[in-house]
TrEMBL record:
This is Polyprenyl synthetase family protein. PANTHER family: (2E,6E)-FARNESYL DIPHOSPHATE SYNTHASE, GERANYLGERANYL PYROPHOSPHATE SYNTHASE. Keywords: Magnesium, Metal-binding, Transferase. It comes from Streptomyces radicis. Gene3D superfamilies: Farnesyl Diphosphate Synthase. Pfam families: polyprenyl_synt.
Length: 316
């Protein structure tokens, strides 16, 4: 399992040779360290929380790639494709267990509180993934349902990451809760941008196939917003996607690039792209506003704001 995990993190290639492949953006551990500094304690206090949230995040990636049938992550084959589905499941489970083990060994008197927050976030993350899968086979999903799903699937763990270092640093509940609110809305902004990249992102930057979310029939925010709009583009998109739900996965995978391009163009014409861009900005504003409600060092507030800036302008 160490070999499989090392491949997933980009430390070795498929043949077991040392590799310098990317291990992701590390937003969650960065949040955990900043959260400790927001509480006025050294960043090192947040390290157990940083490691724990990153392990849980990667547990979810291993399982999600298998459930979604994704063959590429970070510009190379996913774990299940290289090492098989069984290994992907087992290593994901092991990372999840290790996250909780490390957190409870943190040495902080509030390690139990931090572990509880991580457990709640993990449960919500799983809820969100279940909702996401269920939406793929439904003809209609509301924007409210989509935001709830994304708040669980992405927002919950970012909310935990943004508060867990402060909890380990024995911060009061007002600070921890404000940081959690920041992380929750940052997560929604992050996912909105992710949804945009999932349709219109450059494969050279995202490491995924073009039109990746459309290929998987995901009811992401741009799609749901477009389907709920008025006008001929929304009507044509609804007709196409209603028919798509009745096709087998094999039939759907046989589509050519032009068919996915048509769906992407209709989502944009119906306003789904513009609505999602505006929603990402709105969630960003709410996240940053939460930082102003509690005292913390100005430098830390500026760095948390800069991290939020990165989330809404990223290209991968």
């Amino acid at each position: 399992m160490n070999t499989v995990a090392a491949y997933h993190f980009g430390w070795i290639d498929a043949e077991g040779r040392p590799s310098d492949s990317g291990s992701g953006k590390a937003i969650r551990p960065a949040l955990a360290l900043l959260s400790a500094e927001a509480a006025g304690v050294p960043a090192e206090t947040g390290v157990p929380g940083a490691v724990a949230v990153e392990l849980v995040h990667n547990f979810s990636l291993l399982h999600d790639d298998l459930m979604d049938g994704d063959e590429q992550r970070r510009h190379r084959d996913t774990v299940w494709k290289v090492h098989g589905p069984a290994q992907a499941i087992l290593v994901g489970d092991a990372l999840f267990a290790l996250a909780n083990e490390l957190l409870l060994q943190a040495g902080s008197r509030r390690a139990g509180d931090a572990a509880r927050r991580l457990a709640v976030a993990s449960r919500r993350l799983v809820d969100g993934q279940a909702q996401d899968i269920a939406f793929e086979h439904r003809e209609r999903v509301t924007v409210e349902e989509c935001l709830e799903m994304e708040g669980n699937k992405t927002g919950a763990l970012l909310a935990c990451a943004a508060s867990i270092g402060a909890v380990l640093g024995d911060a009061d509940d007002a600070l921890a809760d404000a940081l959690e609110t920041y992380g929750q809305h940052l997560g929604l902004a992050f996912q909105a941008v992710d949804d945009l990249l999932g349709i219109w992102g450059d494969p050279r930057s995202t490491g995924k196939l073009a039109w990746s979310d459309l290929r998987q029939r995901k009811k992401s925010l741009p799609v749901v917003a477009a389907l709920g709009a008025e006008g001929s583009a929304a009507e044509r998109l609804t007709a196409l996607m209603t028919a798509d739900t009745k096709k087998s996965q094999q039939e759907f995978e046989d589509f050519d690039e032009a068919e996915f391009a048509v769906r992407a163009a209709l989502v944009e014409e119906a306003g789904g792209r513009a609505w999602t861009e505006a929603e990402a900005r709105r969630q960003y504003d709410v996240a940053v506003a939460a930082l102003g409600r509690v005292p913390m060092p100005n430098e830390v507030r500026e760095r948390l704001t800069a991290l939020a800036d990165f989330v809404v302008i990223r290209q991968r």
